[in-house]
Amino acid sequence: MAPPILFLDDIHLNFGGTALLEGAELSIEAGDRLALVGRNGSGKSTLLRIIAGQLEADRGERFVQPGTTMRYLPQEPDLSSFATIADYVRAGLAPGDDPHQVTLLLEALGLDPDGPTTTLSGGEARRAALARTLAPQPDILLLDEPTNHLDLPAIEWLEEHLGRCRQAMVIISHDRRFVQTLSQKTVWLDRGRARPLNKGFAAFEDWRDEALAREDSERHKLGRKIVREEHWIRYGVTGRRRRNVRRLKELHQLKREKATERRVEPGVKLTVAEGEVSGRLVAKVIGVSKSWGDKPVVSDFSTIIRRGDRVGLVGANGSGKTTLANLIVGKTKPDKGTVKLGVNLDILLIDQMRESLSPDWTLKDALTDGGGDMVAVGEGRRHVMGYMRDFLFLPEQITTPIRALSGGERARLMLARGFRHPSNLLILDEPTNDLDLETLDLLQERIADYEGTVIVIAHDRDFLDRVCTCVIAAEGDGRWVEYAGGYSDMLAQRGNVPELRPSARANRPAKAKKRNEPAPPAAGKLTFAQKHALDTLPERMERLEFEIDRLKNALSDPELYAQDRKKFETWAEALAEREATLAAAEDEWLELETLREVGG
User: Fold this and answer.
1) Torsion angle (degrees, nearest 10) of CA 365, 367, 370, 374
2) CATH number of residue 595's parent domain
């Protein structure tokens, strides 16, 4: 076994008297691909900064093999001291690095090298930071939420690019599909300690659940042992004085163990205040078109959205997803066409514009709108301290200004503010940014339980697969196409992967020439996307089979049709849709498996 090129040993770090890291250990070998996972606030970004040498631990050892190079991608890159994008990216090069990599990466990411840094969007700044991190081709890549603010084409480009890299990398990401594809090992940061798993993230969640179950069992056994020992001390043979003293010491030791153990903190409690039931028809969109200046955003688009639908809007940044959502719900007037909204709609929009929160507000002000100690949640009222705890905010944070909150905390705050209001049509614009995986899982469950209709704009492929009953995708030039199922179902029906549209190729400066275009795959050879599809199709087919069985069981109830005809019809439609999707997935798997066998 080759020696590690970097390791951390017995790392301790306190923030404000609170232990964040307690004896954390981590080892990186050449070519390793580590997923660093854990809840928001567990110290993942802090540990990554210690690995990068940007933060010094209170205690412990950090060792880096001499000559090892590394680059760190922060969550919030600062480009303010550079005039152009190229200046910012070149500043990351060291003597001997290839300057041509700057040009190649900026071209691939659709950025103008001469573009000013002062006018960049969040996604453009993130792509520039990626180019600066990747251009030197270091021995270790440290990537903190690399997919944040990226659109789907950019995420898939990055995933494929990193898949070809030979460098070691440590990745923090909430994008489940991204980290599953790239990781070979997993490090779980849990209650101050780094717990290693010599498998990729795909195996992590089952392993974590088993570990927590064992921990609960051991805790229960410890509690029972303490009870037995206390009973013996009280009622045992008092004449055996020496033995009593020894067992009393052991009992005190057991109690100290129980008192000092760090338990898993409870998760977020997401409660969505629901309004009255809307009509069956939510929105009927007929021949709608909308342009901004000379640019068509939506061209002759029609759809019908019914109560209970979960609609995903996908496309590159700048393709018009938010505009389309606003057209569907009547917030934006179309240039042509008509939109008919259903009756009794209570619309709730939770958007990505966290800057709408005043940085000088306190957490209490943001949740109560400056209205004292109570939060109006639906038709009821709750004390702000209890509502804060539901979203994992500590009591001492009640007077914390918004500007001091982390990205994950601001994301949870937006959900907390939004979910106060009753609704039956929920619009989520980029809800997954900065949320940890456990909060994402709970958000998915709440969307599944929500009795109203949901429109979600997201770049998280796994989230779209788990949530959506249909996807409306941007195809370029204002054309939008509706597909049944989630994101993977859309790819199966479409038969390809998205191009780098507005965020990349369309924004490429006119003087740039295409170069290093990948050659088409040889006959019998699978592309990266086909290999990924072949790996993920069995899991998707298994999930579809489970959903089909569940729907069949529900529809087998002889009283369902008489009691709720609309529910029966909705479930019957969903069953037919999933059976068709499963058949298409099985055909795709068979075709890819045949192609793989031909390719040897």
Assistant:
1) -130
2) 1.10.287
Question: Quick one: angle between helices 565-599 and 528-555, nearest 10?
Answer: 150
Q: Residues 42, 187: one domain?
A: yes
> Based on the domain organization, do 305 and 381 belong to the same domain?
yes
Do 394 and 309 belong to one domain?
Answer: yes
Task: Tell me the three state secondary structure of residue 462.
Answer: helix
Residue after which a domain boundary falls, among 496, 518, 537: 496
Same domain, 311 and 439: yes
Edge-to-edge, what's the strand order for the sheet holding 18-28?
18-28, 6-15, 59-64
Phi, psi of 142 (to 5 degrees): -115, 110
Cα Rg of the chain (Å, integer):
27
Round to whole Å and give the CA distance between 405 and 452.
31
- pTM equals 0.69
Which residues are registered as beta bridge partners of 340?
Answer: 284
Domain, as residue range, for 173:
6-206
**Sign, CA torsion 370/376/382/387:** negative
The answer on 560 and 482 residing in a single domain is no
- In sequence order, what E strands does 31-182 have? 33-37, 59-64, 70-73, 140-144, 168-172
User: Do 440 and 576 reside in the same domain of the chain?
Assistant: no
Is residue 47 within 8 Å of residue 6, measured between CB atoms?
Answer: no
Tell me whether strands 347-350 and 479-484 are parallel, antiparallel or unpaired. Answer: unpaired
Contacts of 393 (CB under 8 A, 6+ apart): 363, 409, 412
pLDDT in tens, 110-141: 899 999 999 888 888 999 999 999 999 999 99
Give the dihedral of Cα atoms 78, 80, 83, 88; nearest 10 deg.
-10
Which residue, 472, 470, 427, 430, is CA-closest to 447? Answer: 427
CA 423: distance to chain centroid?
24
The Cα 441–Cα 37 span in angstroms is 14
Residue-wise pLDDT for 398-439, tens only, equals 888 888 877 777 888 888 888 888 889 999 988 887 777 877
| Shared domain check, 558 and 473 | no
